[in-house]
Amino acid sequence: MEIKCLPNICLRKKAAKVLNVTDDERQILDEMAKTMYLKSGVGLAACQVGIGKQLAVVDIGAGLLKLINPVITKKEGAEAQEEGCLSVPEAAVKVKRAKKIVVEYIDEQGGARRLIAEGLLARVIQHEADHLAGRLIIDYLKPLKDSSFAA
Ligand code: ZN
Questions:
Q1: Which one of 60, 70, 127, 133 has the fewest CB atoms closer than 10 angstroms to its CB?
Q2: pTM above the 0.85 mark?
Q3: Using one digit for the tens of pLDDT, what is the confidence trace for 41-61?
Q4: What fold characterizes domain 9-138?
Q5: Burial class of residue 54, CB neighbours in 10 A (0-12, 13-18, 19+)
């Protein structure tokens, strides 16, 4: 799969909920995982490969997670850390995110799952959930207060 980079419009679209988990979704998730590993990424959302469905893969080195329709239902704490993104090459943005989250999602067999994540795993899941909502790390850049670009 080819990774879409800014300013590709796919990155700004809200991904559609998956209503039925079929072989299609399973195949896309497998291909996404391959692409993520090939690019040495820790997470990848479907919109990053031009697919407008709520699908994401995550692996911070503790095993592959496939997330369908992920919803973050609880957030705790806050921590700012620099993040990169395969779709925003060479950018590093300090992003403040919850330290601990609860995420509810559907697994590739169609089962409802609930996961408590902390630290890097929580960060990556929040990053991918952002992608599925059309948000990117550059949206966290603080606007310049005395910008001469202001209208
Ligand atoms: Zn990203």
A1: 133
A2: yes
A3: 999 999 999 999 999 999 999
A4: Peptide Deformylase (3.90.45)
A5: buried
- Find the catalytic residue in 2, 79, 83, 128: 128
- For the four alpha carbons of 147, 11, 88 and 45, in that order, the dihedral sign comes to positive
Give 44 Cα–ligand 1 centroid separation in angstroms: 7
pLDDT of residue 150: 46
Q: Find the 88 Cα to ligand 1 centroid distance in Å.
A: 7
Q: What average pLDDT does the structure give for the chain? A: 94
Q: Has 76 been annotated as catalytic?
A: no
CA distance 41 to 141: 22
- Radius of gyration (C-alpha) of the chain in whole angstroms: 15
CA of 24 relative to ligand 1 center, distance in Å: 23
